[in-house]
Design goal:
Blueprint (H helix, E strand, L loop, with lengths): L8 H11 L6 H10 L6 E8 L5 E5 L7 H9 L7 H8 L4 E5 H4 L8 H6 L5 E10 L4 E10 L7 H24 L9 H10 L7 H12 L3 H8 L3 H15 L4 H13 L8 H7 L4
Antiparallel strand pairs: 1-2, 1-5, 3-4, 4-5
Helix pairs in contact: 1-2, 2-7, 9-11, 10-11, 12-13
C-alpha cells in the first residue's frame, strides 16, 4: 500500500461503480471495495442505534454458521455485553477505529459472548471502523484476521485512514437507504432489564459485580473498578452464584439471556418475569 492510494486507478474505478449502484447488496459491495486495499479473512456490517437493537446488514460467515440461532441470542440482549457495541454507540466523533484487544475487558476472552461469536473462527485480530450517520445511528464495519494470518499492521491502518474520504461518501449514501424496522423498539426495555437484572434477589453492590462479570472483567479488574479487594469480590461472587443458583460465568450468562427473553415490565427484575413463566 502506498501513500498515493487515492490516485490508484483501481480504487477510482471501484468507487465510481459503487456510487452508481443502489443494490440491496451495497454493504457487501463496500466490504469488497475495502478488501481490495486491506486484506482480511472475515467481515460484518452492523447498523447500531442508541434507540434500537443492532441490525445485521452483512455477515461473511452467514453460510457457515447457525446465524438465526446466534443472531437470536445476540439480539435478545447479548449485544449489551459487547464492548465494540458500546464504543461505537458512545463515540463522539464522526469516525472511530477500534481494535477488540484494546477495548475488551481483561477476561472478555473467557466469556460466553466471545466463545459464541469469536473463538470458533480462530480470530487473532479484529478491527471495527465506525461511522456516525447522525446523533442516533452508527454504521459498524468489522474486519477480522484468523490463524495463520498476521495481525493488522500500521500499514493497514494507514490504508484505512486514507480510504476515509471515500468511505464517508459511500456510507452516507448507504445510511440514507437504511431504515430501522422494529415495532415496538425493544432496546430501551432490554437496557432497563440489564440494569434491573437480579434486583429482587441481589444487593446493589452484587448487581454491579454481576454486570462486570458478564461484561468480561476478571476478579482483579472488577475489584479495581469497585475499589474492593479480590477476596471481597470472591465473597460477592459466591453470594451471587448461591442466590441465583448458578455455578459459573457461563450459567450466569445464559440465565441473563433467558430472563431477558421473557422481560415485560421496564421496572421489574427480569428474573421475576422469568420465574413466572411456567415450565413445559
Amino acid at each position: 500500500m502506498t501513500q498515493n492510494l487515492l490516485d490508484n486507478a483501481l480504487l477510482v474505478d471501484s468507487f465510481c461503480s459503487l456510487m452508481q449502484c443502489d443494490s440491496p447488496e451495497q454493504p457487501v459491495n463496500i466490504i469488497d471495495f475495502i478488501k481490495r486495499f486491506v486484506d482480511f479473512d472475515l467481515s460484518a456490517v452492523f447498523l447500531y442505534s442508541k434507540s434500537y437493537r443492532p441490525q445485521l446488514l452483512f455477515d461473511s460467515l452467514a453460510a457457515q454458521r447457525d446465524v438465526e440461532s446466534d443472531l437470536k441470542v445476540y439480539m435478545a440482549g447479548a449485544y449489551l455485553l459487547d464492548p465494540l457495541y458500546y464504543v461505537a454507540v458512545e463515540q463522539e466523533g464522526k469516525w472511530g477505529v477500534n481494535v477488540l484487544a484494546d477495548v475488551a475487558p481483561d477476561n472478555f476472552y473467557e466469556t460466553e459472548i466471545y466463545k459464541t461469536y469469536y473463538r470458533e473462527t480462530d480470530i487473532i485480530d479484529m478491527v471495527d471502523i465506525t461511522y456516525r450517520c447522525d446523533e442516533d445511528r452508527v454504521i459498524d464495519l468489522s474486519f477480522s484476521r484468523c490463524k495463520p494470518s498476521q495481525r493488522f499492521s500500521p500499514k493497514d491502518f494507514n490504508a484505512l485512514k486514507l480510504l476515509e474520504p471515500l468511505l464517508e461518501v459511500l456510507l452516507t449514501k448507504l445510511s440514507n437507504q437504511l431504515t430501522i424496522d422494529e415495532t415496538p423498539p425493544l432496546h430501551k426495555a432490554l437496557h432497563s432489564a440489564m440494569e434491573n437484572f437480579g434486583s429482587s434477589l441481589l444487593t446493589a453492590r452484587e448487581r454491579e459485580v454481576v454486570r462486570l462479570i458478564l461484561g468480561g472483567h476478571s476478579l482483579r479488574s472488577a475489584a479495581e473498578r469497585l475499589s474492593l479487594s479480590e477476596s471481597t469480590l470472591k465473597q460477592h461472587r459466591w453470594h451471587i452464584y448461591n442466590k441465583l443458583d448458578v455455578s459459573s460465568q457461563s450459567e450466569l450468562f445464559f440465565l441473563f439471556i433467558d430472563a431477558l427473553s421473557n422481560y415485560k415490565d421496564n421496572t421489574e427484575d427480569p428474573l421475576a418475569s422469568y420465574h413466572k413463566v411456567p415450565s413445559t
